[in-house]
Specification:
The protein is of the alpha+beta class. It has seven helices and seven strands; from the N terminus they run βαααααββββαββα. It starts with 10 loop residues before the first strand and ends in a 36-residue tail after the last helix.
Amino acid sequence: MRRLLVPGEQVIVDTRQHGSVLALPAAVGVLVVGVAAYAAGWLSRGRLEALAPWLPQGLGPWLALVPAGLAAWALLTYPLRRLAAWTSLRYVLTSRRVLRRQRGLRRSDRELPLAMVRDVAVHQSVAQSLARSGTITLTTGQAASLRLDDVPDVRSFRQLVLDAIDQLPPDRGFAGSYDGGLPGPRDGAEFSDAPLPREPRD
């Protein structure tokens, strides 16, 4: 991350999604392992052969590998996949911008200069309120926006964003821009309140 910073830019917050997003995948993982272990033990003791005498003798230990294989497939499909996604996603707030960085097999970066932000909205479900997490949406007043889901301690993160915006130089936005990339007034230019001359009419 340090090599991506411009001169004078500092990291304020570098965090992941709230750990509560892993609660359901963890519960599913425990359930899958428990069911697979019970099924493997039941098959290895020859219970299936007692119910189906026509099966070859000694097949139970081999059949016990079936629930183990299904459990491994289920763990890779959902719990471990969710864990990898949680590990690879980071939210970074610097003194100049907000970044959403996705790493792993698929990489993507989204960023929004603080000088362009016009609104910082927080949305929380009931479960998120209990966990003090939430979704932050940063908008520019135009089409551009950036959404951060399941931000931990979301109210504090929002306040840090607002504080960073307040501390931006009044005449300069990100990377020397003015008001989010719009060209600024020329040096030494002054504006007058005098009325403009009327245009001649026919």
